[in-house]
Amino acid sequence: MKKIIAVIFLFVSVNLFAQNPAEDTASKPAISSIGKPDGDKSEMKMGKDGGSLISADRKTELIIPEGAVSKKTNFSIQPIINTMPNGNGKAYRLEPSGIQFEKPVQLIFHYDDEDAKDTMQLLMGIAMQDDKGQWHSLRKFTLDTIGKTISGSINHFSDWANFNKIKLYPSYKRLKVKKSLDMQIDVVSSEEEELIPLNPAGDELVPLKKGKIPWTSTWNKTSGKLEVYLKTAATFTAPSTVPDQNPVAVTVNLNGLTYKYKGTVLSTLKLISNILVYDNAYEVSMVSSMYEAPGSAFMAVTYKDTGSFVISVTEKQAKLIEKENRNTTSDLDYNGKCKVQKLQPGSGNIHIFGVSNIRVISPQTANDNPQVEIFFKRAPTIIPLLKFTCPPVGGKGNEYTSTTALARTLAASTIAAYPQQVRFELKEEEQTILLIGKEGTETFVKFTVKKVQDE
Q: Among 49, 55, 101, 214, which lies 20 to 30 A Cα-Cα from 323?
């Protein structure tokens, strides 16, 4: 019987834990539970002319070629919980399932800088889960490390995900001083005892033998202690004080695993885990949204940006130890008749360049709490550069186009991004320290702060 995908491999998963006294080399089928819905569904009717559809979180995209279906068909993308071993982000339920397309459909996964922080992006793959929970790999796909996409052609729909063939767990963790953390390397490979080619040209990783790990590992850390149990498992212990270089980088070099990528032979695979060490710390979470109501030039548009930072505090000193600028166009929600194309990303209206001054303010009375005040370096508000292609006004004439170029220029020159100045009390309870407007209105900004708790 023909395989549904031109070349499908049965996956095996090798899970190795630091608690094991000896290395477990037994290979097991990569079978997992079926993921439950986790986000809004995107759907669109398309006929023989084809078209495109992108998920609500803008992480997954379908390109339906002309002639893929012979009649009007409802296509949908439902984000689901990704239960795949070494899975990245969410998985996606593509429908309609159970039909064969007359021409292959292109499936595109978009990934971000976090996924590209080390050589792990070179080990990405695409997989499909059948109705029995078994994961299968798509052999041929294209990895674009510049555009940060991984894509392939598929002939039918099911639950699909992207994953890493080798992964260090955890990739990120917050850990209190003096506490310990178990770390491990997980491997997913094929029944034919090899990792899948990195691109359609046929460049491959050196085969991984079934149930064996044909490489050695060298573990390192920038501070703290590291006890290596196996070549795939170790325990990290945080230093007794918050280190100057924070997060602490735990790296693993996998020696003896040579592979090719676009004709270049790479002999060392480097895995990285970032461990944020904290003691007395507070996290400030920020959200800002701008809303343009129906009836405007582009119908209804909601642009949302989020970010956060963590402050470590001693009796007399405070320090910024983590900042996250999370602006992406995935937070752009457009409801109108125009087609939207992203020309350039933006840094958003929440963006942290750095801190110009930070201080701890002593309590004025015995009943008061100390406070922390932070002044941030000015950052401009830069919205994404978008192109709108809209139907003719009144249904007559030609399509017209417009961009956000003017708004982008004006915002960058006149509007400073948040945060600019923040002040909060050092106390256990969660606090709202800034509130402007209401969610869903034209302008909404909210800052909350809470003490970082042991995970």
A: 55
What DSSP string runs through 152-166? EEESS-SEEEEEESE
Please report the DSSP string for 23-85 in residue order. -----EE-B-PPPPB-S--EEEEE-TT-EEEE-TTSSEEEEE-TTS-SS-EEEEEEEE---ST
How many angstroms separate the Cα of 231 from the Cα of each of 87, 210, 396, 420?
22, 17, 68, 46
Contacts of 234 (CB under 8 A, 6+ apart): 18, 182, 183, 184, 219, 226, 227, 228, 250
pLDDT at 179 over 90: yes
CB 176, CB 279: distance < 8 Å: yes
The H or E element containing residue 235 is strand 233-237
> Span 19-34, mean pLDDT?
61
Give the DSSP per-residue string, 116-177.
TSSGGGGGEEEEEE-TTSBEEEES--EEETTTTEEEEEESS-SEEEEEESEEEE-SEEEEET
* Cβ partners under 8 Å of residue 365, min gap 6: none
The token pair that represents 313 in the structure block: 């505090």
Q: Which two tokens stand for residue 102?
A: 């007359």
DSSP class of residue 394 equals G
Quote the pTM value.
0.75
Q: Tokens 């002593």 label which residue? A: 362
Give the pLDDT confidence of 310-362 residue by residue, as tens digits: 999 987 889 999 998 876 544 566 667 777 777 777 888 899 999 999 999 99
Per-residue tokens: 104: 């292959």
